[in-house]
């Protein structure tokens, strides 16, 4: 919400939301992929997101799939994502 306030010039009123028995400060969340290793979770939390998903982090480190991992098929108007969950593993991440 703080980030939205910086962008829009006015911070909206936080409205808590409940989902599956959990209460979140607001409904605006950050999906996995931006902070793959969980290195920036505190900084991202200060931006006012109601929830933050990190990762994907696996039990052991893995390099992911061979490159290219992300590419377009222009004729089909498609994007293929086959990253393979490249990450440092749970012991080093988060």
Automatic annotation (TrEMBL):
Gene3D superfamilies: Aldolase class I. Its cofactor is FMN. GO terms for cellular component: cytoplasm; plasma membrane. One of its GO terms (biological process) is 'de novo' pyrimidine nucleobase biosynthetic process. Keywords: Flavoprotein, FMN, Oxidoreductase. Residues 18-92 form the Dihydroorotate dehydrogenase catalytic domain. One of its GO terms (molecular function) is dihydroorotate dehydrogenase activity. It holds the Pfam family DHO_dh. Pathway: Pyrimidine metabolism; UMP biosynthesis via de novo pathway. This is Dihydroorotate dehydrogenase catalytic domain-containing protein. The lineage of its organism: unclassified sequences, metagenomes, ecological metagenomes.
